[in-house]
Amino acid sequence: MEIITAILAGILFATAIYNMLQKQLLRIVIGTALLSHGAHIFIFTMGRLKTGQPPILIDGIESYTDPLPQALILTSIVISFGVTSLLLVLAYRSTQENGTDNMEQLRGNENE
Amino acid sequence: MSNLAILPIIIPLIAAIVLIFFNKRVHISRVLAKLFSIISLGTAGYITWYVLEHGSVILETGDWIAPYGIVLVMDGLAAILVLTTNVITTACAFYAPHAGLERRERFYFYPFFFFLITGVSGAFITGDLFNLFVFFEVLLMASYGLIVLGGEKVQLRESLKYLLINLFSSMLFVTTVAFLYAVVGTVNMAQIAERVQEVEQQGIITTIGILLFFVFATKAALFPLYYWLPKSYIVPNPVISALFGALLTKVGIYSILRVFSLIFVHRTDLTHEMFIWIAGLSMIFGVIGALSTSNIKLIIAYNIIPAIGFILLGIGVLNDSGISGSIYYLVNDMIIKTALFLLVGIISYVAGTSDLRKMGGLIHYYPSLGWLLFLSAAVLAGLPPFSGFIGKLLLLKGAFEQGEIAIVIIGLLTSLLILYSIVKIFINGFWGDKETMGNIEKKPIKGLLTPVFALLALAVLLGVGAELFYPSIESIAAYLLDPEIYIDSVLKE
Amino acid sequence: MIFAVLIPLLIACFIPALSKLKEKLHTGIFVFFIPFLIFLYFVSFIGNDFTPIKEKYSWIPSLGINFDLYLDGLSLLFVLLISGIGSLVVLYSIYYLDKSERLGHFYVYLLMFMSAMLGVVLSDNIFVLYTFWELTSISSFLLIGYWHFKERSRYGALKSMLITVFGGLSMLGGFILLYVVTGTTSIQQMIGQVDLILNSTYLPLILGFILLGAFTKSAQFPFHIWLPDAMEAPTPVSAYLHSATMVKAGLFLVARFSPIFSGYEGFFIVVSVFGIVTLCWGAYMSVRQTDLKAILAFSTISQLGMIMAMLGFGTKAAVFAAVFHILNHATFKGSLFMVAGIVDHETGTRDIRKLGGLATLMPITATLAIFGTFSMAGVPFPFLNGYYSKELFFDSTLGLGSDFWSQAIPYLAVLGSIFTFVYSMYLFFGTFTGKKQLDQLPKKPHEAPIGMLISPMILVVGVVIFGLFPNIVNASFLQHAATAINSTVVYKEITFWHGFITPFKMSLAVVGFGTVLFLTRKKWQSVYQVLPGKVSFNHVYDAIVNKIGTVANRITNYYMTGSLKTYMSLILGTTLIVSLLFMYLTNGFAFNTDQLAEVTFIEVAVVLIMIVAAIATIYMNHNVAAILVVGVVGFGVAILFVIYRAPDIALTQLVIETITVALFLLCFYHLPKLRKSTDSAKTKVMNATISIGFGALVTLVAISAHSSRWFESIADYFVENSKEMGGGYNIVNVILVDFRGLDTLFEISVLGIAALAIVGLIKYRKNKEAE
Questions:
Q1: A–C: how many Cβ contacts below 8 A?
Q2: Closest alpha carbon to B251 in B211, B311, B209, B210
Q3: What is the ipTM of this complex?
């Protein structure tokens, strides 16, 4: 199953990158969302899947899933959320100011 | 005393939070910012002295023993980088009130400024790979805040690219940490190093290391990953550019130095050999970039890239001279890049343009500005007896000792072109007829020049008085080249 | 001795204050005493029993950089030149530069140069030598650019700096290699380890690096091109830096390292060939010039080539001749530069075509010039020092060997000297005899003030004294200098007449052919114009400097397009290729199916739905649909978390995903609608290749990492201690708030900063609109 989730995360990365290589800002934003999902699944997979109980201590149970990756994912989710919100606002403001959501038109010229 | 290790993180954090509440009162903010940066500088100075005198200070946060909790490792390298960071930020704090930030100061300039310091210091100090990611995010988020400050069209445009590229590399960073965790079962750097050593860095580990290298190289702006840098560094106010130029890329190269002197040191025939090539290409393409433009801010921004190349060169050769050279050059470059960014900021302020082709004869109006620029050109190009020379000398010596002749030749030629790129500003901008730009109205720049002057004085001191500093740097290099010391000091085995 | 080196620099710091007094007194008057006292100090060392003196001062001992001074015969020769000519030049400048000039700057640069030059010739430490070496380049740059309002000055200043600093850096490379090979930074100690250096595989490289430094500084072909443009500097500077001292630093360097390299035959070939070629080329180019200072500049190049060649021969005779000629050249060329300066000053032009017949108007100047030019030409008169050293030079070219170059050298020496004769004659007769063309001159010429004449007069007296009594400083001075270069040199009388031998015949040939060529000068004009024509090295330099900007611009703009897509593609492409390469090289891929979780239908179904949704995002052309599809992926992630027993993150993911979807909806409402991709098929394939490649890379690494679990995770510690020490049952929570509390603290900070940034972004705009 780890192989399958690794492939899933890989596909999420691939689609994320494909979207980020597009011109339209919206697609790029979608790409970033997929990217963080991909990264989180990778972290999750790296902590092994399903080798025990949820990491909540209950008397008599010895085997738990690896709690550390979960903690790391939690931190990462929150950070990604912060970045994504800022990105959304920035995308919105940039589109407003520059009058386009096409990244290819946001190249700028050399002497500014 | 181990609590010392966290002070450089906590003080700016407190400063940032306090300053949020004073955002509407610019005058109080300014005073507080200066005050906090001086306190922080003093603390950093004390810590550096303490660490050099008594050895690394290790703080196991929350008293959770390493490798289980997050450990902060204030070793010599971290200490001098934190100290340099504080020197620069103090200079910037004194420059900022005169920098024409205007309303930006009321939109959380100072909180971002201190958050940035928090992140940078944290990145230098932490001994935990995932925690390093978190501090990267702190400093990146603060930098996003700073770069968009003002909301000009160009700013928004360039910060979008900056943010997206950094976002990608951050995501790759956590993923890579996870891969490494799968293999070695830990995120504590000392323990990672120990375990990687145990299995002789076999199998997938080197590839993971390379992915990590690319993550850091993107932040450090090495060839061929620096595309995001030049434009995005010139769009904000000069004081912000100076902070970025001095700190952000340096955190990237610091991370490479740390990780590739501590953890991935068992396949140097592949990894470090490649670094030398990347170093050479960074020098070449960086300096070509610097020569390609007549925008003075852009000239300085491009000059970041060859400097990072020089530092990487020392990591690539991985011997005493090389590593000492990298550290010396790193410190030197942080100082001189700040000075240069601030200087071109002043120049474009007094000239009313950043386009070199429209300037001339400024020396008649601003002689001290001109001479400071000239001096910094000499420092940047590594002319003796200034700080750049000491670093360059060590780096080139290190490269020769490894028999890397080609890179030395590239390094020497690059130095010449770096000098040319800055002297060009001096010749075209400052020399010439008094009337080249018509009659300029003289603007007061004393408040702006003083911090620059202080930084350059330090650069001169670092060169002329190298004897005061070099022995410490040399011992730090020896320490870095023996990962066992780091591992033992953290894991106490 | 250290004071002698540093005093000019220290005094330079006070010049700006002094120059405020210039209303009353010329700053030069104060400055004059500095070189003069230094000169007197060093004169006291001259004597038959002179022995080298060492002084040591610690500077940066841990890097081997120490202020070690070494005064031997060679340095003494240069030190006396620097301080002696320096005094005369300062004296001359007092009359040459008007008080209205920015004298403060001038003398600061000049003193800085003086210190630097003294430092170069006295340093025993290679890195200190290099420091002063670059300082001479910098001060030369500033002096050439002294009249920086002139375009030509700026051009000349930049050119000289680029070329000499280029050489300096190369020399640094050589020095570092020497340091690595010998482990010492002292030149004298290196000389003690000649064998080590000669046996090093780096020897050709070291030699190449150092000679490049010497050749650029001493304006050897083809690096000579900076020197003529350096003539834009005020004439005292040309006389001082660009004729008597700085340009001889390269000669000094070669002489200094001669004891090391003379054991290597490549040294002889390279140095003498470059020297001889420079001699001929410089002399030939000089004949073509019409500007007095340009003639002198090319003449200097040629003479430097001649001395360089002699140092290259390295024989006893040659080395002695070289030392003697360094001294002689300083006297006659120094006086000629000052004469040229006087002519320029008094007539307002240096164009020889406009000059002529000045002898009657400026008799003293003309007399000085005749000594200078005839000495330079090597005319066999017993009262001209130039003849003696030229004779010694001819002598040293003979019998060097039987190979082609050794045989050709005497002929080339004669050829070069013929041209030398021609331009020397032209310089004198063209300026001082012939028809007067006073109407062409900007000023009405008359004799120069006496103050201006003193310095050239003293130098001409030197020409005559060294001519009449060639042995006057031979044993006490020149001999020491020669032995410092080649320890086998023994004392030899210099005599005017040694019979009708080959060198004398060569001199006669020079005078004979030279006179013919000079008299028929006009007929040759067209021939002189053929070379160098388009092949001039100036064109090369100009092309490099002019094109470097445009080429750099083209290269940089090629990839710095400002397009995020290009940047991302390049970054991803590089990471992908290099990482795959490393994976292959280190045999990194691993595949291991042990310990895998079992595959069940429901999980596979979730995964499949997520995959379909992820791919669908690419094809969605409707805002809301796109958000929904992204939401499907996000909630899919949450379901996976639930299935694999991670309740905390599943909850967080659900909450965050919900908010994110809401944010997306809000934001997408304001953004333009999704459009169909208009990329060409080629771009699409390219994008797809990169994306799929990168996805594959991370998957492969993930599988390999998963298959290489060589260590137990530290997680067991958290399980064991969560309750007792952390006081909580939920291990993830305990990790977040306690074990790794620091992460959480800064994770919250990140959110806080993001909030501030968003506030800034939105409010700043409102503020702007309000205004």
A1: 281
A2: B311
A3: 0.94
